Amino acid sequence: MFGGFGMTELIVILVIVVMLFGTKKLRNMGGDIGSAIKGFRKAMVSDEEPKALQDDQQETLTSTNNDSVSSEPGNKQG
């Protein structure tokens, strides 16, 4: 099943782990691991958002600069 471990071996390992750590500590460790994974995912998503915002800002600046450059020759006072 899992690298040559059968169901009975996995149950024995699980019982030993529960006896060593206790259910409360295992529950806390599970919660800590879960919150760490959530934090990692949130950091990955928030890391991608600034790149998208920077691209949007760059496009806005480029279009603004192009508009102001193209409108300057028409603003000649004579």
Helix and strand topology:
Layout: H1 7-21, H2 23-71
What does this structure look like?
It is a single chain. This protein has 78 residues and is mainly α. 82% of the residues lie in helices and 0% in strands. It has two helices and no strands. The longest helix has 49 residues, at 23-71. The radius of gyration is 29 Å and the shape is elongated. The mean pLDDT is 76.
Helix content, binned percent = over 70%
Mean pLDDT: 76
Task: Kindly provide the radius of gyration, computed on alpha-carbon positions and rounded to a whole number of angstroms.
Answer: 29 Å
Shape category: elongated
Number of strands: 0
Count of individual helical segments = 2
Structural class given helices, strands, pairing? mainly alpha
- What fraction of residues sit in β-strands? under 5%
Give the N-terminus to C-terminus distance in angstroms.
88 Å
Major sheet summary line:
none
Assembly form of the protein: single chain
Query: What is the N-to-C order of secondary-structure elements (H for helix, E for strand)?
Result: HH
Would you summarize the structure shown here?
By secondary structure, the protein is an all-alpha fold.
Descriptive tags:
elongated; 2 helices; mainly alpha
